[in-house]
Amino acid sequence: MIDKPYVSTYQQSRQKRKIYTILLILLLTVIAFIISMNTGFIRLSPMELLETLLGMGTEKQNLTLFEFRLPRIVISVLVGIGLALSGCVLQGVSGNALADPGILGINAGAGLAVVLFISFFPTTSDVPVLFLPILAFVGAGVTAAVIYALAYKRGEGITPTRLLLTGIAIAAGISAAMIILTLRLTPDNYQFVAVWLAGSIWGSNWMFVLSVLPWLLILIPYVFIKARVLNTLNLGEVTATGLGVNIEKERLLLLAAAVALAGASVAVSGGIGFVGLIGPHLARQLVGGKHQFVIPASAAIGALLLLSADTIGRWLIEPSEIPAGIVVSVIGAPYFLYLLAKSKA
Amino acid sequence: MSSLAVEQVKVGYSNLMIIDDLSVEIPEKKITTIVGANGCGKSTLLKAIARILKTRKGTVYLDGRSIQLLPTKEIAKKMAILPQSSDTPPGLTVFELISYGRFPHQQGFGSLKMDDLKHINWAIEVTGLSEMRDRSVEALSGGQRQRVWIAMALAQDTDILILDEPTTYLDLAHQLEILFLLQKLNEEEGRTIVMVLHDLNHASRFSHNLIAMRNGAIVEEGTPEKVMTRSNLKAIFDIEATMSVCPHSANPIYLSYTLHKLSEHTLQKENKKSG
């Protein structure tokens, strides 16, 4: 046995570099946060912004910042974190770098719930739109549960490949059903559904912030604690079992966490894709394969990505706006193709 | 020390039972190798011992307790497994991957304690990976990578090592390197080693104990002298072997062999050649 346990200087500097990278992404997110507070139809100069934040703003400035802009920014950040972490967990559990919350039918399930709701209670009726996040969440959860049940095989449990294939099939089926349902909607309602599906941060008030926040507060620490388990799951089933991981139990719990994270996010943001795919992917490229680093880096990148997309979407065609989901897709689709072209298989 | 015993085990895959009723005891602090033809159930037996496959009937006992009832993490502190193949995740250094072997001993977020580092560094040292500890695992050759996986299993710090064909896909020299390493671990550390090997001569040379299987049952079990006989090889593999003695270990080996039941055509060909 070696008496002096040591970590090589290379390993130490590698570790430091990863931490600095994560801090840098967080810094960029803060900058995007500040720029985003400035962006919009009503201009707020940096000075005015500071005054308003310190409680010395005019009534109009207060309203713009605190009631419209800030909740929207906060939601972008939270949803970005939620989707990226969900993708990070899914990619870890499935061992497939192309897994994304959308693949578990989460976006489709949430969308179907929303379309069904709108078909029966048009937006013009008195039923509060606040029901939508809850419905979308339930829709996401039910769909994920159905996919899990269909992919489950007695004696073998759940295998990632079967889960992904079942997810893709179910999502395709739900999308078809949704198209049929939307054809029967009135133009107004159709418009609402279309915007929702495109993924605009539409629920921009503090109520919606409160509907996502608790989920993240519980699930983020949970995912962090499971970093070691995700590490071992990446080595293959037999190796993970040999290391003492109860694979079936951990997979089920982690999948549930991923569904809850994405479901809660999609509920307030609509069908935003690609953040869950790109976030963890970029994270792994930047900080390597250990989940102790991939998880925080994914979360930070997700927040930065969605906040930037929403800000760009608001600024590009003022005073109208492009849904953040579209902006992310415009960046995400080429990146996805690039990944496919680069992957060996 | 940890003991292993298999009692009246029935095991296989969802609708195909490979082993019906098998009992065997694995001697402590010895190298035991399971041999047999393709599909004879040797890997299945190894997987049952390693709790990868659940037994339908019967029990595998680790220190006298059923492995089905022990928490999997407790088992992982006593028994490490090296599967036929593992996935290599991208973006990991040799050191980082080997550190994953500490999983059963860690808590919470998983920062490495002094004790963890001690075992990781020892595993790196003993597998001769010191020079490569900071290299990316993806950049390593097959032989080097296999040593990294063995080092990970060693970092787990267990009395028992279970290896499924650890030398497959390696060239001759690298095969021996791995086997010498296992021999050293057994002799110097007293670790119990259970493995499946395809190469009979290697099995005979490096094992204290051989388990020869056919059709899910044990044909013969015991020292290489007892198992590696002409008649046993016929019974296990349907081959006619020419036997000799290994100059390195003094254990029996085969020099060459031919099939026991040759078809008319191949028989004629063989006769022509021999003259």
From TrEMBL, chain A:
GO MF entries: transmembrane transporter activity
GO biological process, alphabetically ordered: siderophore-iron import into cell
One cellular component (GO) term of this entry: plasma membrane
UniProt membrane topology term: Multi-pass membrane protein
Pfam families reported in the protein's UniProt record: FecCD
Keywords: Cell membrane, Membrane, Transmembrane, Transmembrane helix, Transport
Coiled-coil boundaries: none
CDD domains reported for this sequence: TM_ABC_iron-siderophores_like
Subcellular locations according to the entry: Cell membrane
Membrane-traversing stretches: 20-42, 70-90, 102-121, 127-151, 163-186, 206-225, 252-279, 291-309, 321-341
Superkingdom, taxonomy of origin: Bacteria
Xref: InterPro entries: ABC_BtuC-like (IPR037294), ABC_transptr_permease_BtuC (IPR000522)
Sequence similarity: Belongs to the binding-protein-dependent transport system permease family. FecCD subfamily.
Protein name per Swiss-Prot or TrEMBL: Iron complex transport system permease protein
Automatic annotation (TrEMBL), chain B:
Keyword Membrane set for record: yes
PROSITE patterns xref list: ABC_TRANSPORTER_1, ABC_TRANSPORTER_2
GO annotation, cellular component aspect: plasma membrane
Keyword line: ATP-binding, Cell membrane, Ion transport, Iron, Iron transport, Membrane, Nucleotide-binding, Transport
Superkingdom per UniProt: Bacteria
Signal peptide annotation: none
GO biological processes: iron ion transport
Entry-linked SMART domains: AAA (SM00382)
Lineage, highest ranks first: Bacteria, Bacillati, Bacillota, Bacilli, Bacillales
Source organism (scientific name): Saliterribacillus persicus
Protein name: Iron complex transport system ATP-binding protein
